[in-house]
Amino acid sequence: MYIPVILGTSRKGRQSEKVAKFMLQQASKAGLESELIDTRDFSSGVTDSTKTLPQSQKLSEKISKADGLIIVSPEYNHGYPGELKMMLDMVYEEYRRKPIGICGVSAGSLGGAQMVEQLRLVGIELQMVPIRETVYFSQVQNLFDEGGGIKDESYYGRIKKFLDELIWYAKALKKAREEE
Ligand SMILES: Cc1cc2nc3c(=O)[nH]c(=O)nc-3n(C[C@H](O)[C@H](O)[C@H](O)COP(=O)(O)O)c2cc1C
Questions:
Q1: What is the residue with the minimal CA distance to atom 3 of ligand 1?
Q2: What phi, psi does 63 have (nearest 5°)?
Q3: Ligand 1 pocket, 74 CB below 6 A?
Q4: C-alpha span between 72 and 105 (Å, rounded)
């Protein structure tokens, strides 16, 4: 199963990078093939869905191969970052009938909950299956040690539930796509 982790912000000083790298580790430990897809590497400056850009072709290859997606994103003014939406909009068919799990990130206590709700709706329009399980990484600035380890062990249980659910859907939908 190949399920990459999308890092949804390109902001200088982004805290979400720690979460994305941590989720990548957890996905690998759960037996998934994964990699980081960083919005910084796919910037085009404007919305472009022509698939003529080199970065669109690269994204198309990765999303085509994917059995599902994990998106790690902060909440900016109650929404998702513009660069994440511009990157997602580069391709379309490639997302079809694949599950999407969203991890929210915030400096406050809500863990990006309002962003998660909005991004789920985008996932539906991309023909994806947004899963119910979510991991909210709140007070992210205090959550990780120097080595990138998480200080609050209670996250492990939530991450397991999240990945178990995502993998269930990824397997079920892969089988169904293959039978199409
Ligand atoms: C433009 C901007 C808007 C923000 N809006 C929100 C918000 O609506 N809700 C929230 O919980 N945090 C908000 N934050 C703070 C983020 O939670 C904080 O930056 C956190 O570290 C996660 O984002 P990062 O990956 O960019 O660091 C905002 C930050 C920026 C830069």
A1: 76
A2: -70, -35
A3: yes
A4: 7
pTM attached to this predicted model: 0.98
Homologous superfamily of 5-179:
Flavodoxin domain (3.40.50.360)
The structural domains of the chain, with segments of one domain joined by +, span 5-179
**138-177: pLDDT as tens digits:** 999 999 999 999 999 999 999 999 999 999 999 999 999 9
> Residue 149, by phi and psi: left (phi above 0), alpha (psi -120 to 50) or beta?
beta
Pocket flag, ligand 1, residue 106 (CB < 6 Å): yes
Which residue has tokens 């902060």?
A: 74
CA of 107 to the centre of ligand 1 (A): 6
CA distance 96 to 81: 22
